[in-house]
Amino acid sequence: MKNIKIEIKWAIIFVIITLVWMVLERQAGLYNENIDKHASFSYFFAIPAITLYVFALLDKRKNHYHGTMNYKQGFVTGLIITLFVTVLCPLTQYITTTYIATDYFPNVIKHAVSQGKMTQAEAESFFNLNSYIWQGLLGTAMMGTVTSAIVAIFTRQKVKGNLVATPA
Questions:
Q1: Whole-number pLDDT of residue 57
Q2: Angle formed by the axes of helices 5-27 and 46-63, to 10°?
Q3: Where does residue 80 rank: exposed (0-12), middle (13-18), buried (19+ CB within 10 A)?
Q4: Is the residue at 168 inside a domain?
Q5: CA-to-CA distance for 64 and 57, rounded, in angstroms?
Q6: H or E stretch at 26
Q7: What is the per-residue pLDDT across 38-68, written as a single tens digit (0 to 9) for each?
Q8: Is residue 117 part of a domain?
Q9: How far apart are CA 60 and CA 155, in angstroms?
């Protein structure tokens, strides 16, 4: 457990930031009057998400690997964070839809139908808690894996060479 303490910490931070983001989306009206803009603005969550992975891998490099970390170590660290965030995803989605975005599903269903993008039945089967939990599980696992793979490239640090000069 000691070896993954940093990953657990950053997974919890990730979940908290996700919930804060949901509150900000609610405050911006993206679950009601500005629902037509919700999908576009949600992509901006990638900025804090990627930033958190960078900080997490740097934290692991500094405090577990003593300043050096290879690509594999960074990638595995990211995958462990992704695993924990994915496991917490149903709880995060439940909290979001039950306490933060209580009117999201009825509003997005109405919007999708009014725009002719879906029938009422299609919208109701797509926009509901169960569907969003599954989408969240798959999306979190996929995006976390991709993010881990990319961030590990930029956070790796090789062992510095011998700084002691050899006699000539």
A1: 98
A2: 160
A3: buried
A4: no
A5: 10
A6: helix 5-27
A7: 999 999 999 999 999 999 999 999 999 999 9
A8: yes
A9: 10
Cα–Cα distance between 58 and 37 in angstroms, integer?
34
State the total domains in the chain.
1
| pLDDT score for 168 | 40
Enter the tokens of residue 132: 């969003």
Residue linked to tokens 């992509």: 43
**Nearest-angstrom CA–CA distance, 71 and 140:** 21
Q: Are 148 and 73 in contact (CB under 8 A)?
A: no
Residue whose C-alpha is closest to residue 135's, from 79, 80, 78, 97: 97
pLDDT at 163: 44
Domain that holds residue 138: 2-155
Low-confidence ranges of the chain (pLDDT < 70): 1, 160-168
Residue 129 lies in a domain: yes
pTM over 0.85: yes
